[in-house]
Amino acid sequence: MIANRTDGAVPADPPEADPEAPLDEYLEAAVQRLLTEDPDLAEQAISVTLRDRALLLRGEVESAQRRAEILRRVMSHFPNVPIRADIGLIRTNAPTEVEELP
């Protein structure tokens, strides 16, 4: 990343996150806000919880591309936070057969 600096210097990469440092208590809310308020995502079906020093994203989306975009956005906004995903895919097309109940 090149910064707009007058001396032309390129900043160093950010330091690695300390695995023993506590994660911010508002991190879950910040990720949830990103998912719901980003106009390109507007995703309300994903829950965010802090578990085992990582953020766990859970829910269902309509496509693998949508899941990849959600993960890309969260990882780019929170690069030093471990992310785990349990995001499944739901069927969005009409059923092809009639379901008969006994």
- CATH architecture of the domain at 27-89, by name, is 2-Layer Sandwich
Distance between the termini: 62 Å
Q: Please identify the top-level CATH class of the domain at 27-89.
A: Alpha Beta
Strand content: 15-25%
Number of strands: 3
Whole-angstrom Rg: 19 Å
Shape: elongated
Order of helices and strands: HEEHE
Helix content: 10-25%
Number of helices: 2
* Most strands sheet: 3 strands, mixed
- As residue ranges, the low-confidence spans are 1-21
Describe the structure.
With 102 residues, the chain is α+β, with helices and mostly antiparallel strands. Helix content is 25%, strand content 21%. The chain has two helices and three strands, in the order H-E-E-H-E. It has helices spanning 27-37, 64-77; strands at residues 46-51, 54-61, 83-89. It is elongated. Residues 1-21 have low confidence and may be disordered.
Write a concise keyword list for the protein shown above.
102 residues, alpha+beta, Histidine-containing Protein, Chain: A, 21% strand, disordered N terminus
Task: Write a compact overview of the structure shown.
The protein is of the alpha+beta class and 102 residues long. The chain is built from two helices and three strands. It has a three-stranded mixed β-sheet, covered by helices on one side.
Topology, element by element:
Layout: H1 27-37, E1 46-51, E2 54-61, H2 64-77, E3 83-89
Parallel strand pairs: 2-3
Antiparallel strand pairs: 1-2
